[in-house]
Sequence to fold (198 residues):
Amino acid sequence: MSYILQYTLDMMIVMIIATPFVVYIRYKSQKKRDIGLVNRWHEVGIMTFWVYLIGLFYETIVPKNGVSLQYAEMRIQNQDVLGINFHLFRVFTDVYNAIHYLNLWQPFFINFLGNIAIFMPIGFLLPLLWRKMEKFFFVFFTGLGLSLFIETMQLPQYRSTDVDDLWLNTLGAILGFCIYKQFAKRIPKLKEKFKVFV
Fold:
């Protein structure tokens, strides 16, 4: 549980540090384009989205122990030894074994629930901010594509790369999308409040 708290704390610290930079860059960008009428709620949502992505990329892409293309090649050749999993749904076996034989719940909270939860904001914020993203198809492929990008970027790093992360992350985006749909149904004004006027 302490690992999850540390992971969340690290991500939150990076997001807090990134916030003034994102606000400044967004402000300068809007001023440069000389946009007159601005939906402030949309702007807050956009900045929240970018700050979240910075936190996500910091935790999943930024190298913690170095990068090596030779190491990526070695990992692909020795998948099981060097932390690559191409066996779909192996997460279920790993989590079951960890709980049943080792009484260890960390893989369940981190590898299973964590991979779902970390992508839920993607599925919620995309349709909240952009009309086009209110379609399931777009959220599904954005979640999948973003997860694939992250897993590919992790290959040359000294960390795990897992095919199960792809469907768990995508499932997280789908759940976030479903939560947005429920909110939009119960609070109809939400559908327009965070979107641009035109």
Q: What stands out?
A: Residues 27 and 33 are 10 Å apart (CA to CA). The chain has a mean pLDDT of 85. Strands lie at 84-85, 161-162. The radius of gyration is 19 Å.
